[in-house]
């Protein structure tokens, strides 16, 4: 099992550009999450999904969009990138939601200049 | 907004000592509590979870929960330099986890 995979590992964007961060899991988990982590800070939830076709906002959703067309994939879309979106982005998955262990991908380090 | 508070540290302990990491949370409805370890530049990995009041031991790690005081702690016995990392406390809020900012632990040999 690969677990949770994320691509790319690193990316530099110019202000106003758009991109999609990819996340995939092979554990047949229903729940998937996107977090951002700023230096010295904890993880802030951007969006989450409880199954294919179902997504909901987290704590910091502005400037991002998600979709969940399959159980395996949960891409995060950044539209009109801003310097405030410079961060490390982690995708995670769990089998049964909040009370279950979340497994994290390796992260994507994004810089917006 | 549900909150999870941790002392940012760094907490410095000598090798072989007990490291004590603390966490308080604001949501009295939280049912599950997790400790994740995060090495610099890496993703978080689960160390322990606890659901019931009291202590839960796993090897050198002991998680303690006091729901009345809304307090969770993690004890690391016989601390090793390899334990040096950031420790994140996480608390359930419905289908989600709310994370604290983490405590930096440094174990000096």
Primary descriptors:
heterodimer, A: mainly beta, 11 strands, 0% helix, B: 109 residues, mainly beta, five-stranded antiparallel β-sheet
Describe this entry's structure for a reader.
The complex is a heterodimer of chains A (113) and B (109). Chain A is built from no helices and 11 strands. In chain A, a hairpin with an 8-residue loop joins strand 9 and strand 10. Chain A starts with a strand and ends with a strand. Chain A is globular, with a radius of gyration of 13 Å. The model of chain A has no long low-confidence stretch (mean pLDDT 94). In chain A, strands 2, 4, 5, 6, 9, 10 and 11 form a 7-stranded mixed β-sheet that branches. Chain A has a 4-stranded antiparallel β-sheet with strand order 1-3-8-7, with no helix packed on it. By secondary structure, chain A is mostly beta strands. Chain B is mostly beta strands. Chain B contains no helices and 11 strands. In chain B, the strands form 2 sheets. In chain B, strands 2, 4, 5, 9, 10 and 11 form a 6-stranded mixed β-sheet that branches. The radius of gyration of chain B is 13 Å and the shape is globular. The mean pLDDT of chain B is 94. At the A-B interface, strand 4, strand 5 and strand 10 of A face strand 5, strand 9 and strand 10 of B.
Write the layout of secondary structure elements.
The complex is a heterodimer of chains A (113) and B (109).
Chain A: E1 4-7, E2 10-13, E3 19-25, E4 31-37, E5 43-51, E6 54-57, E7 64-66, E8 76-78, E9 87-94, E10 103-104, E11 108-112
Parallel strand pairs in A: 2-11
Antiparallel strand pairs in A: 1-3, 3-8, 4-5, 4-9, 5-6, 7-8, 9-10, 9-11
Chain B: E1 4-5, E2 11-14, E3 19-25, E4 33-38, E5 45-50, E6 54-58, E7 61-66, E8 71-76, E9 85-93, E10 96-99, E11 103-108
Parallel strand pairs in B: 2-11
Antiparallel strand pairs in B: 1-3, 3-8, 4-5, 4-9, 6-7, 7-8, 9-10, 9-11
């Amino acid at each position: 099992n690969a677990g949770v995979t994320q691509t790319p590992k690193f990316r530099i964007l110019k202000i106003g550009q758009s991109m999609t961060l990819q996340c995939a899991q092979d554990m047949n988990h229903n729940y998937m999450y996107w977090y951002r982590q700023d230096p010295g800070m904890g993880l802030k939830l951007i969006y989450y999904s409880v199954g294919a076709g179902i997504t909901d906002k987290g704590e910091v959703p502005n400037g991002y969009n998600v979709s969940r067309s399959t159980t395996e994939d949960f891409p995060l879309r950044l539209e009109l990138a801003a310097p405030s979106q410079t961060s490390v982005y982690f995708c995670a998955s769990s089998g049964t939601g909040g009370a279950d262990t979340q497994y994290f991908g390796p992260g994507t380090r994004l810089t917006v200049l | 907004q549900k909150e999870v508070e941790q002392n940012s540290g760094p907490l410095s302990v000598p090798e072989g000592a007990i490291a004590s990491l603390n966490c308080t949370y604001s949501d009295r409805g939280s049912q599950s509590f997790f400790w994740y370890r995060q090495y610099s530049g890496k993703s978080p990995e689960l160390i322990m979870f606890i659901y019931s009041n009291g202590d839960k031991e796993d090897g050198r790690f002991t998680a303690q929960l006091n729901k009345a005081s809304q307090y969770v702690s993690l004890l690391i016995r016989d601390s090793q330099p390899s334990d040096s990392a950031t420790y994140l406390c996480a608390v359930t809020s419905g289908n989600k986890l709310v994370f604290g900012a983490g405590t930096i632990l440094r174990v000096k040999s």
